[in-house]
Write a structure and sequence with these properties.
By secondary structure, the protein is of the alpha+beta class. It has one domain: Cathepsin B, Chain A, CATH 3.90.70.10. It is built from 6 helices and 8 strands. Strands 1, 2, 3, 4, 5, 6, 7 and 8 form an 8-stranded antiparallel beta sheet that branches. The chain is globular, with a radius of gyration of 17 Å. It catalyses: N-terminal N(alpha)-acetyl-L-cysteinyl-L-aspartyl-[protein] + H2O = N-terminal L-aspartyl-[protein] + N-acetyl-L-cysteine. It holds the Pfam family ACTMAP-like_C. Belongs to the ACTMAP family. Keywords: Aminopeptidase, Hydrolase, Protease.
Length: 251
């Protein structure tokens, strides 16, 4: 048997032992709504664990979110709408689109700024504290820490033909909402949903962070009329590169 690679040194080491039962949110630090046992999503997650050949896999955190498919370049707004399902009256994508247009954040639904997403989250998710995570390439543990403590995370990355993270310099920029964290002997994996699939995705955290760190510019195949790009560009301080938005529940 070959030796599995260790997790990145900058990340906290995953647990070495497999728990006796697949249960989410056993830590007392998680909010009550996160302390759930995998039920309807269990089969799908187990298939993802098998498909990725994850050894000693433990679901550290999972939050059930129903998929919403996007219509046009609305992936960020769709991700935020999915996050709002924690509320009795979740916000719709059309509501978010209208607000984003009024504020000058978008023309067609695109959102090229984590700051813009944070502003919308503060307006429509009042029971969650938006926290912009920065320098993810040098501090990836900020992302795992947020997930392990019950936050949902909205993160931009480059989407490949199968929607997995890739490196296209931002030309395939896409948004996903991270709803789960898996620790294994291979390192950390994240469970994600996004607006181009009804299925739960499972990606190596390293690949996602690397993809996030390569977001430098918008693609050349732009929507007629152009997109709203923040000052400093996609790779700037108000853009997408190296950044994500954690939504911490107030408890």
């Amino acid at each position: 048997m070959h030796t599995m690679p260790a997790p990145p040194p900058s990340m906290p080491s995953p647990p070495a032992e497999t728990p006796e039962k697949s249960e989410v949110g056993e830590s007392e630090t998680l909010p009550p709504w996160a302390k759930i046992t995998l039920t309807s999503a269990e089969a799908e997650i187990e298939k993802l664990i098998v498909r990725n050949e994850l050894k000693d896999a433990e679901v550290t955190y999972f939050c059930q979110v129903e998929p919403i498919l996007q219509d046009g370049p609305q992936c960020g707004l769709v991700a935020l709408a999915m996050a709002s399902q924690e509320y009795t009256n979740p916000v719709s994508v059309s509501q978010l689109l209208a607000e984003a247009r009024v504020r000058g954040f978008t023309q067609h639904g695109e959102v090229y700024s984590v700051d813009y997403m944070g502003t919308l989250a503060a307006e429509y998710l009042p029971d969650h504290r938006p926290d912009i995570l920065v320098d993810l390439q040098t501090c990836p543990d900020t992302l795992t820490h947020a997930l392990a403590h019950g936050a949902m995370v909205l993160i931009p990355y480059d989407s490949d033909f199968n929607h997995a993270p890739c490196l296209k310099r931002g030309h395939k920029a896409h948004w996903a909402i991270l709803v789960g964290l898996i620790s294994s002997r291979q390192g950390y994996y994240v469970l994600a949903r996004h607006g181009k699939s009804r299925h739960l995705a499972c990606w190596p955290l390293r690949d996602l962070i690397e993809s996030n760190g390569n977001l430098e510019e918008e693609g050349t195949a732009r929507h007629a009329g152009g997109y709203v790009i923040p000052k400093g560009g996609v790779g700037g301080q108000r853009g997408l590169r190296g950044r994500a938005l954690a939504l911490h529940p107030y408890i």
